[in-house]
Amino acid sequence: MGSSAGILPSEADCEADRGCDPMGCDRHTEHDDIASWVRRHQARAWRFVRLRGCPADLADDLLQDALMAAVAKDVYTQPDERAAAWLCGALDNLWLMHLRTEGRRARRVDAVVAERALRQAAPHDDGSLWLGALRACLALLDGRSRRLLDMHYADGASRESIAAELGLRVNGVKALLRRVRGALRECVLRRLRSEQEHGE
Amino acid sequence: MNRDPEADDAFVDHCLREELGGMRPPDLAERIAGAQPERLARAAAAVDAAAAARGRRRRRTVALAAAAVLAVAATAVWVGKLLVAPPLTVEQRAQALLDEFHRVMPQRPAMLRDEPRRREVAARAVPVVRAILDLHEHDPGERVFGARILEFEVYAAVLGDTGVLDALSARAAAGDPAAAAELATVGIAIGDGEARATALVQLGAALRQRPDIEQSIVQCLDVADLSRDEAERLSPAVSSPAVRRGLMLTAELAAASPRRLLGAPLELFGRLVDDRWFSTNTLHGRVVLVCFWASWCKPSRAVLDELRRVGAGHPELAVVCVSCDDDPAALRNYLEAHADREWIHFFDRTRPGWHEFALSCRVNTLPFVMMLDRQGIVRDVHCESELDAAVRRQLAR
């Protein structure tokens, strides 16, 4: 997010915020401004609604509606932090309405936790830094842990079939998944800390 | 910051789904930018409907909760007890103060370099910053401001809060390099010439002792409007390459900003709307408002209306309008309906679009208004949002 680092907008933020809005118009075309604004916000907003438990294909549709509404309502001319918050709110409303229409009540992650997760993991970007660190940590995993993750996340295998293949009890699969995720979390945080200390 | 492991675990789980499950955020930029107005309106209606549905649900929940509270209250009264509403949490109060801070501070912090503007902002902003500092002092564990509280100390000092200035001076005298860095930042922000150069050297020395605060300090330097040369001189004292890049970028952008015209004489030149060439250094000793605008830009038209209102009360003002219109016919129609005959209108019909004079002034955004004194020296820029105050300040000089 453009203005996430400072408590006041920097000159860079003012540059990023340029567009035809109540404050002013610039000499870039509105098309370019909207496209660049969408690129700044789309991944983070998509991750928010995915964190809330929305399936990927539906998340794409809801995100498209929210972004179009933001353009229609001139939200895209507002400061980045406010626009990002508006997008998350709009997506949350769309997702909840979908759940109600479908008669479902299940939510994977509470909205407060989802917001906190994004704030912690992606305070200054759209989550790509965290994802990159996780990718590097995953490359270090091998053997049973890696197989477990591949079966669970890539193949969508049931706990029973994972347990049968890895020689675990069904309850053991859940516990092992939790442990592996915990280890990955620590690895990611270590990497990010180290990158920050070394300046990148 | 105290991390919430549950939130981190949720994000790890999400990233694993994204990475291993092959689900990536879509790139909708071109689709959104090229969407037809009808499609945008449909999406806006869908979002409004979802918000309204949620509002209804909330109201129902509130009504049920209110009924429950009434029942509990009635019971409590019945047993002789009082119910007290829970106070706001520290985080909620801090967030409200942060919102208020953003509301009262100028959009471009570098405006605070100008002493009269600083005084105007201070009147409304110092109480807010003071409340933020008090909240943090009372509850140092709060997480909204956290380590960035020093940025607020710098802003308080820049705005002339003597309490904060005295406290910083005492800490700096006791050998606290963070306080020394904050004081030096304030010195750069409000100082000029020798004092500013000395403060820059002091800031470099303090940052070498406290590299952990360099990011916050560099953020505050937005208010100082550093030149490229000053940023280069400070740069070796900044240990993080990322922060160093941020420092240089801020200086690069500031160098490309019309603020650089401040204090220098400005020759007004360019082709007028009637094709004549115009060039002058002063307009008969009058204070000049130069407004860069375009008839297609709604905020520009509003500023022109405001200029007309302000100008009517001050005959000693001259107004020069620099049109960046693309379409000569649209400009002509607008001027015929709205133009003030006394004003000077720049427009180059042989090269419509961004006017040559606007480019030479590095004006990138419309509307943009600058003020020249009677000697033709640029005294104020970005005064489009506060024309009255800007004119008052200039005429009082």
Description:
The complex is a heterodimer of chains A (200) and B (397). The two termini of chain A are 18 Å apart. Chain A has helices spanning 11-16, 30-51, 56-72, 80-102, 111-121, 128-140, 143-154, 159-166, 170-197, and one strand at residues 25-26. With 200 residues, chain A is mainly α. In chain B, a hairpin with a 5-residue loop joins strand 7 and strand 8. Chain B is globular. Chain B starts with a helix and ends with a helix. Chain B contains 16 helices and eight strands. In chain B, the strands form two sheets. Chain B has a five-stranded mixed sheet with strand order 5-4-3-7-8, with helices on one face. A two-stranded antiparallel ribbon of chain B has the order 1-2. At the A-B interface, helix 1, strand 1, helix 2, helix 3 and helix 4 of A face helix 1, helix 2, helix 3, helix 4 and helix 6 of B. Strand 1 of chain A pairs antiparallel with strand 6 (365-366) of chain B.
- Which structural class should the secondary elements of chain B be placed in? alpha/beta
If helices are DSSP runs of H or I spanning 4 or more residues, what is the number of helices of chain B? 16
Structural class of chain A: mainly alpha
Count of separate DSSP helical elements of chain A: 9
Shape of chain B: globular
Helix content of chain A: over 70%
Descriptive labels:
heterodimer, A: 9 helices, disordered N terminus, B: alpha/beta, two-stranded antiparallel ribbon, 16 helices
